[in-house]
């Protein structure tokens, strides 16, 4: 047998929303990066292989960020009193412009990829900028680290400053180029990325949808994030029956695997339509507060069976570590409960699930330690005094609430140790 990875420690993951699976002092065995099983004692056929023994540390699935803007990483925590549309105009577009400069892109994307690795985000859906060359630099930076990701050149051809938009033709040509370069094997893959409806002409959306279908490439964008943004969409696209319909009528809503960030404000029939089409929602709680968009009814969407992952939405969100998003998802659901007692807040296991397995489903089988899943794992080290006095589940909750990259001592993607 070749390519066997065996790691040992206290294993914790969520197979379902309701509860954690905990295997104390156990072995995870993976073959060619896929999990074969979890064992309390190592089966004899694996005895001759090397075992990485992490002792009393906790092993959890890698975090999945379903929505993050790599080109905004440098401005995390800046301009945080602006509302969404002001924040885009006053800060964000100016920074994204700089990614036309290759040296700048190399420096900034290297820092981003370093940080993503250190905080344990092993899979992510990433917006780059509108620069084709800049986006290529991001593909390479992530590949070098061994991280898994979908990366999109941001398509925009209207309703934003001239220095950041492109002609429809150039936007499509650049997207096609990147698809051709990266559509093959590898953990970093292309995704079609219209920024959002308002910065896209109908022509651009149609051509992007055609590309998605022709090449079988997934799609990501923003939808129903903010009341003012939604009003703007109604003005620009009066012939479409909804914001969702602007994407859907152009093959950008579930015709290929699709993830939409936010979706805070959904009518009943829209919830049902998203479920039917299997479109993922990237819930981005920090961002929703920072740029004053609203509070997504997470419990309601979970109960309605929607596919949901978590997003940092850096830099609408100010923290890139996904433990922050897990905490904030729980906290926001409590605010809804405070305002309406009949609204049940989400449990810790549910928030952890959507930050790992929920978002992981967009990448295939990742985010859990069930058989056949990719061995994407983080090894967590906490303080001795805590480890000696608390259960594994308490220790894990404490890490999620109070820990950071300093507590992550090893990272594996598809059975390969990458940091
Ligand atoms: N809508 C369009 N662009 C953006 C962006 O960069 N961040 C967020 N949060 N929403 C957007
Ligand atoms: Fe975003």
Automatic annotation (TrEMBL):
Keyword Zinc: yes
Gene3D superfamilies given in the database record: Metal-dependent hydrolases (3.20.20.140), Urease, subunit C, domain 1 (2.30.40.10)
The entry's keywords: Hydrolase, Metal-binding, Zinc
Record-listed E.C. numbers: 3.5.4.3
One GO cellular component term: cytosol
GO biological process: guanine catabolic process
Protein name: Guanine deaminase GuaD
Organism, scientific name: Peptoclostridium litorale DSM 5388
């Amino acid at each position: 047998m070749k390519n066997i990875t065996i790691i040992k420690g206290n294993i914790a993951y969520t197979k379902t929303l309701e509860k954690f699976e905990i295997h104390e002092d156990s072995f995870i065995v993976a073959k060619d990066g896929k999990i074969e099983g979890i064992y309390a004692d190592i089966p004899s056929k694996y005895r001759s292989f090397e075992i990485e023994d992490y002792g009393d540390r906790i092993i959890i699935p890698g975090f999945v960020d379903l929505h993050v803007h790599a080109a905004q990483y440098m401005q995390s925590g800046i301009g945080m009193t602006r509302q969404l549309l002001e924040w885009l105009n006053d800060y964000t577009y100016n920074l994204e412009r700089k990614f036309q400069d290759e040296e700048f892109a190399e420096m900034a994307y290297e820092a981003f990829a370093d940080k993503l690795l250190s905080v344990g985000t092993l899979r992510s859906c990433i917006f780059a900028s509108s620069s084709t060359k800049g986006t290529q630099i991001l593909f390479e930076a992530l590949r070098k680290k061994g991280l898994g990701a979908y990366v999109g050149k941001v398509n925009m051809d209207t309703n934003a400053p001239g220095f950041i938009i492109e002609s429809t033709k150039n936007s499509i040509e650049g997207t096609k180029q990147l698809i051709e370069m990266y559509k093959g094997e590898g953990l970093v893959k292309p995704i079609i990325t219209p920024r959002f409806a308002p910065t896209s002409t109908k022509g651009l959306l149609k051509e992007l949808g055609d590309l998605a279908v022709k090449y079988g490439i997934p799609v990501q964008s923003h939808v129903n994030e903010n009341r003012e943004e939604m009003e703007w969409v109604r003005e620009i696209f009066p012939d479409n029956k909804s914001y969702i319909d602007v994407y859907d009528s152009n093959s950008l809503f579930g015709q290929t695997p699709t993830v939409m960030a936010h979706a805070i404000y959904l009518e009943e029939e829209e919830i049902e339509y998203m479920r039917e089409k299997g479109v993922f929602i990237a819930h981005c709680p920090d961002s929703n507060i920072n740029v004053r968009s609203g509070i997504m009814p997470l419990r309601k969407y979970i109960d309605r069976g929607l596919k949901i992952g978590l997003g940092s939405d850096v830099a609408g969100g100010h923290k890139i570590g996904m433990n922050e998003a897990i905490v904030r998802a729980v906290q926001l659901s409590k605010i809804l409960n405070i305002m309406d007692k009949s609204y049940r807040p989400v449990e810790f296991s549910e928030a952890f699930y959507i930050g790992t397995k929920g978002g992981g489903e967009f990448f295939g089988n990742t985010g859990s330690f069930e058989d056949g899943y990719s061995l994407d794992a983080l090894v967590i080290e906490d303080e001795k005094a805590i480890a000696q006095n608390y259960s594994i589940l308490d220790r894990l909750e404490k890490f999620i609430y109070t820990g950071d990259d300093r507590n992550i001592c090893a990272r594996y993607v598809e059975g390969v140790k990458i940091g």
